[in-house]
Design brief:
heterodimer; A: 322 residues; mainly alpha; MetI-like fold; two-stranded antiparallel ribbon; extended; B: 289 residues
């Protein structure tokens, strides 16, 4: 504001003009200072993000909550029905089947995947040759489209002509019906899921392992700890923040099972592979029961939030931060 | 295997079973590597087999005669090149939007002081927890009101409004850049926008490459969104196109595997080319969380 000096000229004639220019200059300078201040620049740069939060996250989350209390076909106006959807849901055997399947799938795919990924990470961490080669191979399923992977495994699992039964036959082992049998369909998809997620989880564990200082192992060895004791008392505790992170991430992902079951089984045979998200999709986009689908989505949201919350509470018992 | 004998002299100085562990580690890795490679090799092998060879019991390992026509068949039955073009267009524009919007937000969160920054960042992180299925129906309704069903807009436009994961990843990187750079530029009369565009962005190239690869692969592989938004075959992306092809030719395993292989190939090539950035991104987003 102090540098708003007008042009020098004949005093009386120029004074009015100079004052005007000075005033304009002051306003412009003030404006430019405002726009260029950290505070305003912060909001300007965040404009798309804030708009996106409201438009695509927070707004829809609220809308979805409201819709879950309505009956709505997507064409006419939604009709408020109170808690009807949630009452329906509690007595809907298909919902309970989907919930049970999803829970079974989550536990049965996440736990073995994490255990095996940890084992692989430890193996790779033994200063082994060809780390890049192994990592590249393990990542092929991670980067491939899940739809392509599902079509491929549908072919591998084919009871008559598939590779898996051909190998079992050659080894003289009993053949399976895999996706065609309600009792083996979901476990078959769990095997595919473990196979698919190994590389990703392994890389996370590997990074965690490499963060453990070598001196810890040396100190433990001097104290007379054997290989098992070192693993049990050094590796596992110091790796627990990584394990926790992998666990939370993998469980959230597993709860959202959709692509595989949509492509491979459409939820069958006899609802044995119906997941919650597939049920939401069928309700919303095939039966046009958008209100009921919203209540299903909300139940999924609450379950994921609860499970994550419980994991965060439980982490105090077993996760060690330095 | 010469490696094993090379470690033996050292193993005698160490506890005698140290070499055994190494052999076990190699065995485990080789076993899992085989289990990863075989399904993909089988996909390629089947994609080159005639119909009789596909349904042979027991199946032959290698295709004979080699049936290249399965690949041509894919293009005859569905507009596969168009699927590829649609996927390329959508993934590129979504990646560009993600890079621009996330880097702006990440810079603001990492380097600018303004009221409400902490609260906003906390809200943003909590959004990471919301499964996309919860927002699916209201967002679908908004897209329908805009007349965007069966267009590519619903798959591109939201990317231009930032996403929590990308902002978090870039912010972690921006925090590692020295604050003095910004102070020096400011003294030279550079505005915050200038610092962002001319200093921070060029320095952030490795982090941007990481986010670009992750976003591109995610967008390319996405299935649920294109499934609900796209109806006409001419609009479809590769995953939805594959699904539609499977619906039309349920037991045509030769052409189906050819199509699946062509769907995987671009991502595998992209991953191998940018492997360093890819792994870095997973580690960066994973461990500082």
């Amino acid at each position: 504001m102090d540098d708003s000096i007008g042009p020098v000229g004949r005093p009386t004639a120029r004074i009015g003009q100079a004052a005007q220019i000075a005033r304009q200059g002051t306003v412009r300078l003030w404006l430019s200072r405002l726009v260029n201040s950290d505070a305003v620049a912060g909001y300007v740069l965040l404009l798309p993000t804030i708009a996106g939060l409201l438009l695509f996250s927070l707004g829809p989350v609220v809308a979805s909550a409201l819709l879950s209390f309505t009956r709505w076909d997507g064409l006419s106006a939604p009709v408020w029905t109170g808690t009807e959807n949630y009452q329906l849901l509690l007595s809907d055997p298909v919902f309970w089947t989907a919930l049970r399947n999803t829970a079974f799938y989550t536990v049965g795919s996440v736990v073995p995947s994490i255990a095996l990924a940890l084992l692989l990470a430890i193996a790779v961490n033994q200063k082994i040759r060809g780390v890049v080669f192994f990592r590249t191979l393990f990542f092929l399923p991670v980067v491939s489209p899940p739809v392509a992977i599902a079509i491929l495994w549908g072919w591998l699992y084919n009871p008559q002509y598939g590779l898996i039964n051909a190998v079992l036959d050659r080894l003289g082992l009993p053949l399976g019906q895999w996706l065609a049998d309600p009792s083996t369909a979901l476990p078959s998809i769990m095997i595919l899921s473990i196979w698919n997620s190994l590389g990703y989880n392994m890389v996370l564990f590997l990074a965690g392992l490499q963060g453990i200082p070598q001196e810890m192992y040396e100190a433990a060895t001097i104290d007379g700890a054997g290989a098992w004791a070192r693993f049990r008392h050094v590796t596992l505790p110091l790796l627990s923040p990584t394990t926790f992170f992998v666990l939370v991430l993998a469980m959230i992902g597993a709860f959202q099972l959709f692509d595989y079951v949509f492509i491979m089984t459409q939820g069958g045979p006899m609802y044995s592979t119906l997941s919650i998200v597939l049920y939401i999709y069928q309700m919303a986009f095939q039966n046009f029961k958008l209100g009921y689908a919203s209540s299903l989505a909300y139940v999924l949201f609450v379950i994921i939030a609860l499970v994550t919350f419980v994991q965060f509470r439980l982490q105090r018992r077993w996760v060690h931060y330095e | 295997m010469s490696n094993v004998s090379a470690t033996l002299p050292r193993a005698t100085r160490r506890p005698p079973w140290a070499g055994v562990w190494r052999v076990l580690a190699y065995l485990l890795l080789l076993l899992v590597a085989l289990s990863m490679a075989i399904p993909f090799l089988w996909m390629v092998s089947t994609s080159l087999k005639t119909n009789e060879a596909v349904f042979a019991v027991p199946p032959a390992m290698l295709p004979s005669p080699v049936q290249w026509d399965n690949y041509a068949e894919v293009f005859r039955v569905v507009p596969f090149a168009l699927f590829g073009f649609n996927s390329l267009k959508i993934s590129s524009l979504a990646t560009l939007g993600t890079l621009i919007s996330c880097s702006m937000a990440a810079f603001a969160f990492a380097r600018l002081r303004f009221p409400g920054r902490g609260v906003l960042f906390a809200i943003l992180l909590s959004v990471l927890m919301i499964p996309s299925q919860v927002t699916l129906i209201p967002v679908y309704y908004v897209m329908a009101q805009l007349g965007w069903i069966n267009t590519h807009y619903p798959l591109i436009v939201p990317s231009w409004f930032g996403n929590a994961f990308g902002i978090f990843l870039l912010r972690q990187f921006f925090l590692t850049l020295p604050q003095e750079l910004m102070d020096a530029a400011k003294i030279d009369g550079c505005t915050p926008y200038g610092v962002y565009a001319r200093i921070w962005l060029p320095l952030a190239k490795p982090a941007l490459a990481t986010l670009a690869i992750l976003t591109f692969i995610n967008s390319w592989n996405d299935f649920l969104s294109p499934l609900i938004y796209l109806n006409d075959q001419s609009m479809m992306t590769i995953p939805v196109g594959l699904s539609s092809f499977q619906g039309l030719h349920n037991a045509d395993w030769g052409p189906l595997m050819a199509a699946a292989f062509m769907g995987c190939l671009p991502m595998v090539v992209l991953f191998v080319a940018g492997q360093r950035y890819f792994v870095q991104g997973i580690v960066l987003s994973g461990l500082k969380g």
